[in-house]
Amino acid sequence: MTALLRTARFSAALGFVALGLTDEISAAYLIGGGLCWLLAFALDRQPEWGKRLRRWETAAVMVMVVMLLADFFFWGNSVYLCVAHFLMLFQMFKLLGEKTRKDSLQILVFSFFQMLSACTLSVDAWQAIILFLLIPTMASGLFWNQIAREQEESDERLPTEVHRPYRLWVTGLCLAAIPINLFFAGVIFLIFPRLGFRSAFVGLGGGRSGYNEEINLAQSGVIGNDSSTVLYLKITPAADRVYWKGYLRGTTLDFFDGKLWKRSKLLMRALPSDGRTSSPVRRSQEITQSITLVNTEGSTIFGSPMIHRVIAPLSSLQEMTDGSVRWTTGWRKPLRYDVVSVEQPLRDPVHRSLPDYLQLPKMSFNKTQTLLKRINRRNTPLARAQAIERYLKENFAYSLDLGKANAENPVEDFLFVTQRGPCGHFATSMAVMLRLQGIPSRVVAGYYKGVWNERLEQYLILERDAHAWVEAYMEGTGWVMFDPTPRVAAVSTGRQWMLELRKNWEFVNYQWARLVIEYDLYSQLRTVEDMQSRTALVNAQFGRWLHRRHREREVDAEKKRNPFSTMPFTAYGIVLSAITVLGLVFFFRWRQVSPYDAEIAFYQKFLEQMARKGVPKKAFETGHEYVQRLSGSSDFAMAQQLTQRYYAARFPGAL
Amino acid sequence: MFSRRPWPIRFTRFGTYYILFSLAIGAAAINTGNNLLYLMLGLLLGLIIISGFLSDSCLWGTTLDVQSIGDLYVGEPGEMELTVSKSWFPGIILRVQALWSSGETQNLFYWVPRYNARSLRASVRPGRRGWFELKSWKTSTQFPFGLFEKIHQRRSQEKWLVLPHVAMLPMKLLQAAGLNFADAPANRKGLGAIPFDLRAYQTGDSSKRIHWKASARRGLWMVADMEEESAAGEQLNVSRWPVSAESELFISFLASWVFTLYRLGRPFSLHTPDANFPTEHSKAHLKKILTYLALVHPEQNSAQQVARVYARGINAEQLWSQFRRTS
């Protein structure tokens, strides 16, 4: 039982770590889980506490179910996240309460479900490591559970002599379970059909953090540096990297209610099969990007502005009127696609009414108007936009501090009070200032730059690289991009070896995503074809080798006139047959308990035959007495012989 | 329970949940195309395969040797020693279920080392005399994970004799049957008080046994041999086997009679229409009679034979009816 409890605790720790690595579970839950885990050790000495807590189990479950529903309906978290929260709470309760065998088993099962939730929430290689550790934990947990259950059912104490062999066995099981399980897991992973029905449940995947199509200025606190990977970007050929300005355009936000930027409903049209967008292309530099999008919850194709062509394994690509490309069917795994972009202003393929991009919230912007008069005395819209961009860049400071949440007018609060903030504040301020001057504008959500990884030879874009900038419509030119956020040089923190470690880890993570997460029906078919071609290659080589050998033998045979040497396959056949026969002999010998069993079994068979003939051996008769009784019958000689052999086998020392 | 050959594998409740859970994961993996779910499905199925291989290995090469501890009597608890031996793979959490003529026993062997044996005792209570059979035995295990129970069943031909129920008969009944508990001259040399014969002195004879008068009369050392004094022995006669439903009780009564006499140190004999056992007092003699009584079939014998008349001895039927009246 102690061993089972230890295993359960270990698995609980694995479950917490798995969820903790997803970046989705809040710190409060994780700290609570960790504290409960530590407290469980102390409470082992106070079993009364556990018993008292047990009395509240039904009430606790009811509360947790209510929290689960609230989590889903009121806080709008995804089903996976709600279930993960519920599991964490239940795990905490189980760790603190009284621990019988079934409780330990429940902790083990909860850990498995936590792992499962983590797998659906994240695609990091960390999950592979936890999965790897989960194999021996599950094997030993199930083994100790079985022992404890047998003890419970039989009411017998475990003999002291079995403690040592059991410990050895469970160690062996754990060690052996890893390669065997990985082998089977690998085989099943490779051959299991990738049908991918993708029947989505309502609410699944909603409210996920990461790429967000809203910019909320009514928030307070400091933005955390989220280091989870969003996408890998490779520009081909590598020389074209110099043409990339570092922007990855996502979607545009055109409706501002004073605190929140939203995306109004845009018209869309299906992208043709060649993936070309409808915007006319002028002679301009093309940038080809291969992107592995890890976080696909946004259903948006990112690419350097402006996207001209998309090659992706999706049939539901839609081109929006703002030039962004999205997909409409569910896709919950990394997406690998290619994008061809051209550095040119976008003209809306289907013109929306431009006044929509002049919408302003119903609030006073008097101070902003005054400021605009001061900084903007140019005539052309482009010059005015550039002046605003420059003014914001030069006079305001970039900060991760979101400021006050209850500011009446976040734009003016930023412009005249705090004068520092994140990119969303800069972009909002510029868009509002442009709209106040009658220049149609919108905020663009996307990513900027990222980190160059030498090992991968790719850019790695993280969540913290999320960025917002502005697009303004210039008559005759189209939508021109402005980024009013001042550049802040990324400060390299940490030691060199840590950075190296991080790069290597990103490499592992990328390979994990490429080889495991992205493995789909196409990869499966490719693997099968690859195996076929390799097999064909081996077959051909083997055939050539056989043919060569055959020719050599034929030549030898002609020399020696030996008929047997002309049959090279005879030798192989003989060897193969000999191996088969020997294998069968060893198999049957191995199946026998002792070498004498054949004689005994034969004798038993003989007795059965005689019983069928109507002359059964009576229970009180010895073998010899039975033979005496058979004297005179036709079976006497055989009976005598078999009985002698039986006695010789059964009682070898007696003769 | 053994009316049909059971499946060699049975799902435990936990195992059923495990399979359903694996199927659910499989369905989720197919639906979502999430490769981590495929991996997890692979791990779950991998554990099932490991479990199947280990549990089968645990059952292979298992042999059972059964020995009875002492004699078995009808209605009395008896003990059977079950020795399980294993070949190349050890036996872990091995459950041995034995189906006897009178019921079923179950023993749990937590650990049987490879190429070794472990013994446990099973308590049985035979319901009828005759042969007590071990019809079949099965070994099962839920090792290693308790997901499934693997079962191997074997038929058996081993049997043990169950003797009739015996009990000490009341002294009143023995006295009523005319049993004389005093010793009587046995008409042979022995250590009694009455001289039996006179003979010449031989080297080694005790001087206390020299018959002085006879020696003086004959002028030769004469020694007196004494006559043995012992119980004459009780002969119980069964003239005809009863056909009634009470025949089993009658046989038990006969067994109890010889057993009581044996315990009292009296020689005993039994004469039935188909067998005669001479007067003797020994354990082997008692065993011989009890074995006969264990295997006798009164229904068959009474139909074939006429009532037998005995010159001397106690009539078993009369004694039986007397016993029935008094008890």
Q: Overall mean pLDDT score of chain B?
A: 85
Helix content of chain B: 25-40%
The radius of gyration of chain A is: 38 Å
Please work out how many helical segments of chain B DSSP would assign: 8
**Percentage of residues in DSSP E strands of chain A:** 5-15%
Q: What kind of assembly state do the chains in view correspond to?
A: heterodimer
Secondary-structure element series of chain B = EHHEEEEEEEEEHEHEEHEEHHEH
- Indicate the structural class of chain B: alpha+beta
* Low-pLDDT runs of chain A: 198-210
Helix content range of the residues of chain A, please?
40-55%
Per DSSP E runs of 2 or more residues, the count of β-strands of chain B stands at 16
Q: What's the number of helices of chain A?
A: 18
Radius of gyration of chain B (CA) equals: 33 Å
Residue-averaged pLDDT of chain A: 80
The gross shape of chain A turns out to be elongated
Biggest sheet overview of chain B:
7 strands, mixed
The end-to-end distance of chain A, rounded to whole angstroms, is 53 Å
Sheet with most strands: strand arrangement of chain A: 9-12-7-2-17-16
Strand content of chain B: 35-45%
| Number of distinct beta strands of chain A | 19
